[in-house]
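Example record

One chain of 298 residues, shown exactly as stored in the release files.
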Amino acid sequence: MAIGKRILFFLLTNIAVIALVSVVLSVFNVAPYLTGTGLDYNSLLIFSALFGFAGAFVSLFISKWMAKHAFGVKVFDRPESPAERLVFETVERLAHTLNIGMPEVGIYDSPEANAFATGWNKNNALVAVSTGLAQNMTKEELEGVLGHEMSHVANGDMVTLTLIQGVVNTFVIFFARIAAYGVQTFLSRDGDGEGVGMLAYHVTAIVFEILFGIFASMIVAAFSRHREFRADAGSARLLGQEKMIAALKRLQTLQETLVDPRGKAFATMKISDRPSSFLKLFSSHPPLAERITALERA
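Predicted structure tokens for this chain:
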């Protein structure tokens, strides 16, 4: 929940699919939108949409499988410990309240306090918590976290994120190839687009996709931050404002105490203890203090 891992793995898979498509196009010289007189913008837009949404939807449909294998999630339907029983029964109760299908419930071994929800639709989801979260939160705090994750599921956030990502991908591919065609035209002196010019087109298209993709990620991150506020509010409605605020405050404490035991020796390896305004543009989650304030003002 606090780190946004479901978003991270979703985006990484999405980027990998687009990168693979770009490599295949370059190797086999598949460019149906290039004509003898320049770019066919209609064909390019259709092409961009097909591959842009393909990456997003592939990420969505394999998100549960990917999360299970990446984190080593132990999925259970028969709780074996009090913590597992509390997680399972809370998710079951919330699924009934929200009138959605019972998600798969899991736990994974990690000292950090975290939880996530993923899945391709609200009736076929996965909700998982870390051992660090389950062992360091009270019953009320853990319920607040699970209410947040179940709100994500009920709101269909992963599907909505997929549509946003698909649109963003489409324009990244579209404008990257327009820019690459401009570079190719400039470098190609013989007028037929061969030789150095065509090579430049394929290389430059990939470079521009990376550059445009970085800026496009700001759009997706901004949307994700908005959904976090909404999921917080959803948990507050389901379980009470006090529980959600207590959960966020506990997360603040755990972020400060559950640190690397080797201490400050590795502090310089961190990007930033307090990210700058620029770096916040790429964050999938708002600062915990802002989320607490938003709930207190609600």
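Notes: Residues 5-258+271-297 form one domain.
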